[in-house]
Design a protein that fits this description.
The structure is a single chain. With 178 residues, this protein is an all-alpha fold. The chain has a single domain, classed as Helix Hairpins, CATH 1.10.287. It is built from 4 helices and no strands. It is rod-shaped, with a radius of gyration of 41 Å. The model has no long low-confidence stretch (mean pLDDT 83).
């Protein structure tokens, strides 16, 4: 039983070591960078869409306000000449326009709020991306370089016996063993 447990630990350790070798941090970081860039791209597209929607809302509000000004002028004419029958449909149009303006204002506020949250999220994701990019650069500079091919002298030099004898005498002389 103990033998099986030890063997399974050994196999697990080998598998983990193999997985660690397969998971290269620089590859994982580059993949994280690609994913963050995709997220940022989608968020920027959403941001552009929200800006377009806000512009459309503002344009529609302007159109309604201009129409309201025309209705007000027509109402002035109706009341000046005592034409209440003509004023009723104009008043209905003005009430409808006011209702539409309220709905547009609510929609504009929601879109503006969403835009603010999205801008904050984009800023946070950009900061994360810059952090990851810094780590990628750090890994790229810390990566061990292949050792330069150094030329070592040939170790199989022919040392003559006479040289060994002379060196032995020098060593004895240094140590005072003559």
């Amino acid at each position: 039983m103990a033998l099986l447990r030890r063997f399974s630990r050994l196999v697990l350790a080998d598998l983990h070591a193999l997985l660690d070798q397969l998971e290269e941090p620089d590859i994982l970081l580059r993949q994280a960078v690609r994913e963050m860039e995709e997220i940022l791209g989608r968020q920027q597209q959403q941001h552009k869409q929200l800006l377009r929607e806000l512009a459309q809302i503002y344009q529609r509000e302007d159109e309604i306000n201009q129409a309201q000004a025309a209705v007000e002028h027509e109402l002035d004419l109706c009341f000046e000449y005592g034409r209440e029958s003509i004023a009723r449909p104009l008043l209905k149009r003005r009430l409808e326009a006011q209702c539409v303006l309220r709905l547009l204002a609510q929609r504009r506020d929601r879109v503006a709020h969403s835009r603010g949250e999205l801008e904050e999220s984009i800023a946070q994701n950009r900061a994360r991306l810059e952090s990851i990019m810094g780590k990628v650069e750090l890994l790229a500079t810390d990566k061990p370089q292949a050792p330069a091919a150094e030329t070592w002298p040939d170790m199989a030099l022919a040392i003559r016996d006479q040289q060994v004898e002379i060196e032995l005498l020098r060593e004895k002389q240094k140590r005072g063993l003559q």
